Amino acid sequence: MKTLTFSQALNSGLRAAMEHNDKVVLMGEDIGKLGGVFRITDGLQKDFGAHRVIDTPLAESGIVGTAIGLAFRGYRPVVEIQFDGFVYPAFDQIVSQLAKMHFRSRGNVKLPVTIRIPFGGGIGSPEHHSESPEAYFAHTAGLRVVAPSNPQDAYWMLQQAIADDDPVIFLEPKRRYHQRGEVDTENAPEATSLYQAKIARPGSDLTLIAYGPLVKTAVDTATAAEDEGIDIEVIDLRSLEPVDFETLSASVRKTGRVVIAHEAGKFGGMGAELAASLTERCFDHLDHAPVRVTGFDIPYPPAKLENHHLPDLDRIMDGVDQAMRRTRAPLGEEA
Amino acid sequence: MCVVLMKPTSRKHTSHKGCGSGSPQRRRMLIVSNTFDVPAPAGTGQYLQIIGPDGTRAPCPELDPWVGGIAEPQLEDLYVDMACVRRLDKEGTALQRQGELGLWAPLLGQEAAQIGSGRALEANDFIFPSYREHGVAYCRGIAPQDLLRMWRGSAPSGWNPHEVNMANQQIVIGAQTLHAAGYGMGLKLDGSSSAVITYFGDGATSQGDVSEAMVFAASYQAPVIFFCQNNQWAISEPVTRQTAGYIADRAKGFGLATWRVDGNDVLAVMAATRAALDHARNGNGPAFIEAVTYRMGAHTTADDPTRYRDTLELEEWAAKDPLDRIAAHLDSLGADLEALKVRADAAADELAAGLREAITTMPDPTVDELFAHVYSHGHPWLEEQRDNYKLYLDSFAADAEVTR
User: Among all residues of chain A, which has the CA nearest to that of B181?
Assistant: First the structure.
């Protein structure tokens, strides 16, 4: 066991993946000498060389498109997109090329490309630095989308994503980069566990689903709810595509109530899919409609307003109260 | 002097590699237009040429050394190749009209650009095509029915890229150029002596991906050949809507070695491709070829070019036909043209007959193909969707059983 920050765990995970397979190459803006704007690749170019830790021109479509070409040639590129809001110039290469090549080539071309995207808000930055673009990618057939919430998962999920033969969008909760945690670097989890949800805190009254940055907030909410006599089961979704409905359904059938929290907007977001699918699967077990606690359906706001936008403990607790019928229903959702 | 200046133009010319200087620079009158009207098509400008439209061969010091070994028998083979892909293309159009294909993108007129470059490649060189490179696929030995499989709608693609070193057709304009740049980076990392070539059209040069691909290829000095078939038209938009100068000049700005050639001259295209490959293989970085040609047919079978272009222009280009000029040249060399045409017809007939037989008997894909290959391994959601759809389909069989 080692105690590592989230970013150190990612750095160690990249190092382990590169040591394990010499076809693993890193690509991105400022990832070489600088070590990336968040220092996730710190020291890797020095140790592995500029041919394996590749500083790229400032062109996101170019980065992903050339990663596809490298994968065609047998490499396993790990791409760093500097910030979530800068991934959109690469959208065609991700959605129309990376996601579809395996299908297009009838399984003949595998593109084991991992795209790392620091995502989410809470760091006081201007526009384009705090977005949550996960639903676009989760909606796209051919991509897998995962989001670790703690250093242990950061270390292993990154290596599992790199080892996967399918393209993986790897979302890193940037406001948790400095969070510390225990990391077991010895005992590798099973490869399939990348796509399994985990129960972060067991409970019996209500299922609270979160991923990435909000898992910690969700666990804190559950701790606070204890004082009010509510026993919350927190599920760390981990994989957004595919979703581990087996674990989710088992929990919801047990508790009969579900709250889903994410920073992204509500309309057409991950919460919409989870609420709909869990209703389909667990309708007879539900005591209340699924409740979503999300960011607003607005462009990401200026930093001085972001605390209103981001679901925090109190807003998630308000959602818990709705699901427990302890408060009024929101406007438009009245019975 | 192999530089051909097709028509004087009012555009500012920069000189081209090996083309000498003295290009005309006519002073413009200051007339400010308040419309976006494209200036009248200004002809094709300067390019390198070995065999002219009338079949006359002129010395071209820059290109001649690259095709020194091409004598009469090799020229005859190139003629047969071009005749075969012209026939393949004609069959594609006919099969679409007969309802056997959903769509077809004709290559008519571009045979020299594709055969000349395709035959210059080594088997280990990798190709990233667009959707019109039927002639290049033919050079790679891809069976015509496999080439047409995607156009029929029987499968998303028709061949294994790793078996023939050619990616599947790319429909998003210009997207494949980045894949080529990345592949070239991989070749360089591997210390390989192979090169990668990517095909695209004049319209694609306006796409950001093509510019980014040149930036990446140049930045890493990757062995990438950018092969632009400037066929003058991007569906209904003339090349003047994509650029106010020469496309090849833009590549120079990215630091690429550049050749601008007569794309209807199979020898010039072959020579330029060999020169570019040699440049790239020797670690000198990427190269760019602008092959000036013409799309004699429609953009696709869904297009109607009579709405936007003049028949006079077609006639002008018909006079520069890539097959006719090789025939005329071989005639001037004293070749037995009659025998050559019999041979070409026989090869084309055989190809066409095999193609028609294969297409008309091609089985439709099974429903399983819907779900296969979206992912390379387990995906519970999709497996559930597949199984539910199977149960749904099976329910009709069960109903039929009950009704009976």
Answer: A66
